[in-house]
Amino acid sequence: MAVKLDQSPCCRGHNKRSILRPGRILIACLLVLVGLRLFVLLPVRVVSESMLPTLYIGDILLADITCYVLRLPFFHTRILNTGSPQRGDIVLFAYPLDKRQVYLKRIIGLPGDVVVLKDHSLFLNGKQVIVQPACIRDRAALHSKEHFTWEGKERFGDRDHAVMFDGDGSADRATRRFKVPAGAYFVLGDNRDHSVDSRKWGFVPNENLIGRPFVILFSWDTSRHRVEWARTGMNIH
Fold first, then answer.
1. Which of 4, 16, 48, 50 is labelled catalytic?
2. Helices in 164-233 by DSSP H: which ranges?
3. Kind of pairing, strands 148-156 and 131-138?
4. Buried b (16+ CB within 10 A) or exposed e, 29-53
5. Alpha helices per DSSP H over 88-229
6. pLDDT of residue 88
7. How far apart are CA 222 and CA 59, in angstroms?
8. Do 46 and 217 contact (CB within 8 A), yes or no?
9. What is the structure's pLDDT at 148?
10. What Rg, from alpha-carbon coordinates, does the chain have?
11. Which H or E element spans position 27?
C-alpha cells in the first residue's frame, strides 16, 4: 500500500528553514571571524632571528590589537586608549623610519627611564638588570651557522624572559646611554647581538604601537621543514 507524504505548505516551509539554518550559522561564524580580525586580533609571522630564543622564524603569532588602543578599521584612527605597555612586553609596532613595515621587539625603557648598555650588561635607572645564565649552545640549532651563544633569564619585576648573547667576544663593547622621552619607548630584541632596534634607530612613539602578541598560533621549523607541535599553542612571555 502506497503512503502519500504530507506536502502541506507548512511542512515545506519548515524543511526550507532547516536547509537554510546551517548556511546562516556559517555566515554568522564568518562575520564573527571578520569582526575579530578587524577589531581584536591580528596574525603575525616572524621573519627574523632578532627575537631568538623567544620567537623563531616560522612562528605565526596572534596579537591583541586592543590592549593599548582602539582604532577605527581601515582608517587606523585612534578611538580610545585602553592601556599602557609594561617593561618586558613584546610589542608589535610600526617601524618609526617606515610605518609601512611592522616590527616585533621587547619594551625595555618606559617614558622617563634612563637605559645604559655596557658590554652585555643592561642598567635601568642606575640599577643593573640581572641575567641568570641558562645554557650555551651552537647557533646552528637556531637557524644560523655562526658563533656559540649563551642564553639567560632577564627579569623585570616578577616577570622573566629569555635573552641570548654571542659568546665569542664579537659583540659591540661600547657603553651607550639613552634617556627615553615622553610618549615613547626603548625596545630591544631578545637576540641582543643580532637585533636592529632602539640602539640603532631610536625610540618607538606611542602612536606607533599596534598590539601585543600573546600566543604562538602555529610554528613551522624552516630548517627541518616540519610543524613544531611543541611550540604551537605556547603563550608568549
1. 50
2. 198-201
3. antiparallel
4. eeeeeeeeeeeebbebebebbbbbb
5. 198-201
6. 95
7. 10
8. no
9. 75
10. 24
11. helix 9-39
For 186-217, the pLDDT digits (tens) are 999 999 999 999 999 999 999 999 999 999 99
Check the CA dihedral 132-136-137-138 and report its sign.
positive
* Residue 105 designated active-site: yes
Catalytic status, residue 195: no
What does pTM read for this prediction? 0.79
Q: Give the SS3 label for residue 99.
A: coil
Cα–Cα distance measured from residue 184 to residue 203, given in angstroms and rounded to the nearest whole number: 6
What's the half-sphere exposure (Cβ side, CA atoms, 13 Å) at 87?
Answer: 19
Instruction: Name 199's Cβ contacts closer than 8 Å, sequence gap at least 6.
Output: 117, 176, 178, 188
Residues 6+ apart with CB under 8 A from 226: 220
Of the candidates 4, 8, 105, 195, the residue annotated as catalytic is 105
What is the pLDDT of the chain when averaged over all its residues?
A: 81
Residue 235 cell numbers, joined:
603563550
Amino acid at 69: V
Here the cell at position 60 is 605565526
- The answer to whether 143 touches 168, Cβ cutoff 8 Å, is no
Give the tens place of pLDDT for each residue, 58-96: 999 999 999 998 776 655 667 778 889 999 999 999 999
Percentage of the residues of the chain whose pLDDT score is greater than 70 = 72
Q: How many CA atoms lie within 13 A of 45 on its CB side?
A: 5
For the domain 41-227, what is the CATH code? 2.10.109.10
**How far, CA to CA in Å, does 46 sit from each of 28, 53, 116, 144, 215?**
31, 12, 28, 16, 13
Q: Map residue 24 onto helix, strand or coil.
A: helix
